[in-house]
Structures are given as structure tokens and as C-alpha cells.
Design a protein that fits this description.
It is a multi-pass membrane protein. By secondary structure, the chain is an all-alpha fold. The protein has 14 helices and no strands.
Length: 253
């Protein structure tokens, strides 16, 4: 038994060094890349239809690399929302990344803080899921780098295609791409709502609060950005209070 354990420990210690780990990461990231490209194209089309300059759209994918935040940011910029509100909204949307990167850092082999920062930048919901489900106790930085770069490259390539594809579309069709934002979120929301009562209640609460802030005359002076921020915080707080047991169960599965 001890010799078998020693064998598996030695095998894990030398698992996928260097280019082998990189190749595994790229291979694991290919399904993510296939899914990212059409969504990134939709973002490029939406950004163009919103009147954003091409370089802004491209820089958003290069420097932000967060799909939901980019869609929301482009929409808020088109509405003329104040920059501070956009920053706060996207910060709240991306708070989950603190938890995801902290979780993966516990499984990453000893490496420098610079490498950790670089790898943290490339973590998304999809790359985190792939990395978190790996069977190895320790993850190689080469694997995460290959995984993240594959997703990053596909997202940016899709953005470029969307931005420059939009230049050849008629203005009426460009304007209609604004619905891509809502279609994306509905597509993400419906499967979760069907499988989780907590998600349904939180989503319904967010819609209700935002509708109240929009339609009630007492909140006429409240901007769209602050309405989204308030609705997000209140709905998340309600979910944390009403469904603490469900969250604990999900955390242990």
C-alpha cells in the first residue's frame, strides 16, 4: 500500500511538466474557445451598434476580459451612464472572481506572485470550472496558462470579427444587435432558474427591485447605473439570507 501511494505521489509530482502541461491546458481550453467565439462576435456587434469606437471595443476584450461586464459596460456607455457607476457595477458583477482565484491558488504549485497575478487575470467562469474539476491535487502553472490563453485568444478573435463584421451591416441591423445583451443573459439564466429555486427567487427579486426603481415616481432622479447596482446588491443579500443552507450544500458537492 505504501509503495503504491509513493508511486502515485511521484507520478503526480512529475505530472505534465513544462510543455506537456501547456499542451494539456490548450486542449482543455478548446471547447471553451468554441463557445466563446460566437458570444464575442455578438459583443463586437453590440459595441459597434452602441456607437463605441473600434479601439475601445478591442481594448475592453484585451484589458477587461469579462463577458458579462463587457456587455453591461457597453450598454451603460451607450446610455451615457457616469463612469463611476459603470466601474462600480462591473466591480460588483466580478466580485465572484476573488473567490474563484483564491480557490485555485490553493491548488497551484509553488510559484511567484507575478505568475499568480497573470493567471488570475485569465480566470473566467468557464476556465475556473475546467481547472477546478481536474483530478490532480496540484495544478501546474503551464496548464492554467495554456487554458487561459486559449480562452483569451478566442474571445479577442471573436471581438475583432464582430467589430469589423458590423461595419458591413446596414444601420438598421446594427441597431438590432442591442438585443444580444438580453438574449445572452436570458440564455444563461433560464437553465439555472429551471434547476435552482434560489436562482429563481434571486432573479425575480432583482427584476422586481429594478422595476420598482424605474417606475415609481420617487426614484425619477436615479440613473440606470445606480438602479442596476442597488437591484444587484439587494437581490444578492436576499439570496444569502433566505438560502444559506442551499449554498453550503452546493459548496460541499
Amino acid at each position: 500500500m505504501k509503495s503504491e501511494q509513493a508511486y502515485h505521489a511521484a507520478k503526480e509530482q512529475h505530472h505534465s511538466p513544462g510543455s506537456s502541461a501547456w499542451t494539456e491546458g490548450v486542449r482543455a481550453g478548446l471547447p471553451i474557445a468554441v463557445g466563446y467565439i460566437p458570444i464575442a462576435i455578438a459583443f463586437g456587434l453590440l459595441a459597434k451598434s452602441s456607437g463605441l469606437p473600434n479601439y475601445i471595443s478591442v481594448l475592453m476584450s484585451l484589458l477587461i476580459f469579462a463577458g458579462a461586464s463587457q456587455f453591461v459596460g457597453a450598454n451603460l456607455l451607450a446610455l451615457g451612464t457616469a463612469y463611476g457607476e459603470i466601474l462600480l457595477t462591473t466591480f460588483i458583477l466580478n466580485l465572484r472572481h476573488f473567490l474563484m482565484t483564491a480557490s485555485l491558488s490553493q491548488r497551484l504549485r509553488q510559484t511567484t506572485s507575478g505568475w499568480r497575478a497573470l493567471l488570475a487575470f485569465g480566470i473566467t467562469d468557464e476556465t475556473f470550472t475546467v481547472a477546478a474539476l481536474r483530478k490532480e491535487r496540484k495544478l501546474e502553472k503551464g496548464f492554467l496558462l495554456g487554458l487561459n490563453l486559449t480562452a483569451f485568444a478566442s474571445w479577442n478573435a471573436g471581438t475583432w470579427v464582430g467589430v469589423f463584421l458590423a461595419t458591413g451591416l446596414p444601420p438598421s441591423l446594427q441597431a438590432s444587435m442591442g438585443i444580444a445583451l438580453y438574449a445572452m443573459f436570458i440564455g444563461l439564466l433560464i437553465p439555472s432558474v429551471r434547476s435552482s429555486r434560489a436562482v429563481f427567487v434571486v432573479a425575480l427579486a432583482a427584476v422586481s427591485v429594478h422595476s420598482m426603481l424605474h417606475w415609481l415616481p420617487w426614484f425619477d432622479g436615479l440613473s440606470t447605473g445606480w438602479s442596476i447596482i442597488i437591484a444587484t446588491i439587494m437581490a444578492a443579500a436576499l439570496g444569502a439570507v433566505v438560502f444559506p443552507e442551499e449554498k453550503r450544500e452546493e459548496a460541499h458537492t
